[in-house]
Amino acid sequence: MEEKIVSSAANALDYKGFPADKSKTGGWIPASLILGIEFCERLSTMGIAVNLVTYLIGTMHLPSATSANIVTDFMGTSFLLCLLGGFLADSFLGRYRTIAIFALVQTIGTGMLAISTKLPQLRPPVCQAESPTLCKQATGSQMSVLYASLFLIAVGTGGLKSSVSGFGTDQFDENDEKEKAKMNLFFGRFFFFVSLGTLMAVTVLVYIQDELSRSLGYGICSVSMFTAILIFLAGTRRYRYKKCAGSPVVHILQVIVAAVRKRDVHIPTNENLLYETAPEGSRICQSGQFRFLDKAAVIIKEDHATNNIMSSNPWCISSVTKVEEVKMMIRLLPIWATTIIFWTTYAQMITFSVEQASTMKRNIGSFQIPSGSLTVFFVSAILISLAVYDRLIIPIWKKWKGKQGFTNLQRIGLGLFLSALGMAVAAIAEKKRLSVVTKFGRNTQNLPLSAFILIPQFILVGSGEAFIYTGQLDFFITQSPKGMKTISTGIFLTTLSFGFFLSSLLVSVVKKVTTYGGRNGWVGDRINNGRLDCFYGLLAILSFIDFGIYLVCAAWYRKHTAEKNLQAEMVANKGSPTEKC
């Protein structure tokens, strides 16, 4: 009787800890379960974020600037905690446990939020119609419950988002050409489910919150997340698992600490005298940049343990390859820094732009569109831009230039330019809205002006996100060392975090600087009393300046990459001995 040959996936285990059998684990079925939990995460997070500012202003009676900052701080914290989630997944928990634990945390947070919006004692009294300007703000205890709910949601989002895409790719074997092709399809479907979840959030969920019950809308988020967890756990036997390999953050810190310890050491001119333990085929040649870090690979007397044997303490000495991997991460930082401003402009689309729409006509016949649902044009712009790029631009570019579309740096640059242009258009639209406010009075709740004048800014910034998000993700994954793909994804997500935090900082600074002598300032307590057009204009100027700086950084990075490629070619062709690793 013939024995059945078992084909195992490379570096993957099943739920029992044995090598994963390809016929029983991985593939599209478990990957689809992972896509489902990502869909519910986006539905919950964006269903809360895009409409939260209207709740804070209309129900909790907070000032406009304060409400916008709460939303951006919430989103910023969510993405910043991706680093914590990634660290725990790489070092201790693994991606499967990280997803399950943090998804449960997010479920609890959305449940708390649903309860806090339902109970009358957790909200201030409704404003009196005869004196709308004398509304009582939410108390400290009422806000504490709200903050606790948002913090739990942020923690859950950060931990979940750090691992879900990586765990999805774990279900495919990179060494198998057929499965590798499926993995490439997974990235496209992953972004599609992210966009689909966002689209459902800004349409169906926002409508339920505004027209039926906000607590019902948040309750749907909690129930959907809990259901997604049960479905996710149901696939436990079918998943492929990877061992915890340790966090790249520790690797980076080890190189830095070793270099600082040897700060007074002289670097030898002969690279062969430096410490190296990597196999011949995976070594990285020493570069001329950031020479201080090379001191971590210098061998000194203290590095020898007893009997003249080299110490293996990574906090004292690092190989040349490890040092060069850290240098590769450092070279990503200028691009990282110049992409932060985009997410600051993005933040305005889910805060002030939604508040703008709430003061304007949003009717299509007898149906009134919820103000938060106007961001559907933002999401639609993303999906349309991606479709046009894939089906039109890539074929034309391939025929004309012989290349598969724009490079990742070109896509990032295009996204930055479109977002800067979007802020300039937003300033013009707000100037028009304020002219109507001046004509009909600052206390007018429903201005006789169509909210559809905001569509161009949604389209421009949305199209910008389509290019910059895919460009950033591609750049940080492909340009980072092989063992640091997870941390590079986390670094990419921190651009979103710092962008939201920068938005909060700008709003606070602008409010303080422009509020003097009894003036309301650019971002006043009520949007009709401020000069949001000036604030948008400031963001447009900063965005165009940032775009110029980005072009310089991108040119510097391309130049260095070309030099490294030339060096690698010389090594491959047995060029100058000084160029060999």
Structural commentary:
- It is a single chain.
- The protein has helices at residues 28-58, 64-80, 82-118, 140-169, 177-212, 214-234, 248-261, 320-331, 333-338, 340-349, 352-358, 376-401, 408-440, 455-478, 485-514, 532-572, and strands at residues 8-13, 19-21, 360-361, 363-364, 367-368, 447-450.
- The chain is mainly α.
- The chain folds into three domains: 8-126 and 135-245, MFS general substrate transporter like domains (Growth Hormone, Chain: A, Up-down Bundle); 248-329, no CATH class; 332-562, Up-down Bundle (Growth Hormone, Chain: A).
- It has a two-stranded antiparallel sheet.
- Residues 576-580 have low confidence and may be disordered.
Uncertain stretches of 5 or more adjacent residues: 576-580
CATH superfamily heading of the largest domain = MFS general substrate transporter like domains
- Tally of DSSP β-strands: 6
Give me the number of helical elements. Answer: 16
Share of residues in helices: 55-70%
Q: Which structural class fits the helix and strand makeup?
A: mainly alpha
Q: Span between N and C termini?
A: 53 Å
Total domain count: 3
Mean pLDDT: 85
Described by the principal axes of the CA atoms, the overall outline is globular
Strand order of the largest sheet: 1-2
Strand content: under 5%
CATH architectural name of the largest domain: Up-down Bundle
Order of helices and strands: EEHHHHHHHHHHHEEEHHEHHH
Q: Main sheet? A: 2 strands, antiparallel
Q: Write down the CATH topology of the largest domain.
A: Growth Hormone, Chain: A
* Computed Rg: 26 Å
> Class of the largest domain, according to the CATH hierarchy?
Mainly Alpha
